Amino acid sequence: MPKSPRFAPNAVRVVEFLTFPLVQLLDVTGPFQVFASANDFVLEAGGRPRYDLRVVAQSGAQVTASSGLKLSTLPLPRSGAAVDTLMVAGGQGVEAAAADPVIIDWVQARAKTARRIASVCTGAFLLAASGLLDGRRAVTHWSYCAELARRYPRVRVESDPIFVRDGSVWSSAGVTAGIDLALALVEEDLGPTIALAVARYLVMFMKRPGGQAQFSTALSLQAADDKFGALHEWINKHLDDDLPLPVLADQAGMSERSFSRHYAEATGFTPARAIERLRVDAARAAYSARRLLSDSGLPVKRICRRCGFGSEETMRRSFLRLLAVTPQEYRTRFSA
Asked: 140: how many CB neighbours lie within 10 A of its CB?
């Protein structure tokens, strides 16, 4: 951020939430509640509210979210009106919003006035369409990361972080990650004490452990399914077996050298690293560690053997490397 901010530290900060028809409700209300709760705690401490929260839309009337709930909105402010933070929501209606030249022009103009800009979930597509993510790191919902990267090659898409900050532009992962992002913004503005109080009140992690890979499938391997999809299906049925390179190459109908080269080119991983991911990931593996941890009461040692990790320590290192949590932490968080 600039050393001499355009906004006094104790000034009331205007936060605008850009919405549109079929917006994702939690993309708006989640971050909104974080800022509103921060105001409450500042009031309790004898101060005055620090955020002026405004939900805006092109229509300036009611906007119906994808859930069917109606939101009262204000008209889009003129471009020169004071604003501290512009929050851009996502949802089913983001495609239409990103194709609307009035909204795009307004976002581009508003970005020149705002101290910082942030997107929640697929709101990143609207920022990308406005050119605000060009040359920047960004994230969106895990299931849309590949599409964002395909459509906007100038955006440096990262698929795992809960949120990303690149200069004055922030972006968050799927839906509730907007709450994590808003907590980080409050911490930047008002300090960790207020942010922690808000997180505790909302029963949230102050800083959520791990990334959204905890919730996603092995997206990085899906791009290679045209060439190695059958191999991946076979691997998922034999995860409890020893799977050395010669076995994999034979299954793929290639020499070991040719298989290693072509597989790395198609997936970005060595065969060993890919198998590690498939063993950890629950998306298609019938005996995956993640599914067994969350859906069964089997001891970790038995799950380790069943998934072919060899030892509990190997499984633990794999979880930490890929998900940033231990198997036991994953079980605690996702157990039914």
From this structure: 33
Q: What region, left, alpha or beta, does residue 225 occupy, with left being phi > 0 and alpha being psi -120 to 50 degrees?
A: alpha
Active site residues: 121
**Residue 165 three-state SS:** strand
CA nearest neighbour of 83 among 107, 100, 59: 107
36-58 residue pLDDT tens: 999 999 999 899 999 999 999 99
> Reading across the β-sheet that carries 85-88, which strands appear in turn?
74-75, 51-57, 13-18, 85-88, 116-119, 169-172, 163-166
How big is the chain by its Cα radius of gyration, in Å? 23
**3-class SS of residue 213:** helix
Indicate whether 122 pLDDT > 50: yes
Contact 242, 234 (CB under 8 A): no
The residue type found at 222 is Q
What pLDDT is attached to residue 226? 64
DSSP string, 69-131: -EEE-EEPPPTTS--SEEEE--BTTHHHHHT-HHHHHHHHHHHHH-SEEEE-TTHHHHHHHTT
Element (H, E) at 9: none
The whole-model pTM stands at: 0.67
Q: Which residues contact 205 (CB under 8 A, 6 or more apart)?
A: 180, 199
Look at the block and give the residue holding tokens 């620090």: 50
Q: Are 157 and 126 in contact (CB under 8 A)?
A: no
Q: Dump strand ranges (E) for the chain.
A: 13-18, 51-57, 62-64, 70-72, 74-75, 85-88, 116-119, 137-138, 156-157, 163-166, 169-172
Q: CA angle at residue 251 from 248 to 256, to 5 degrees? A: 50
Q: How far is Cα 129 from Cα 75, in angstroms, rounded to an integer? A: 21
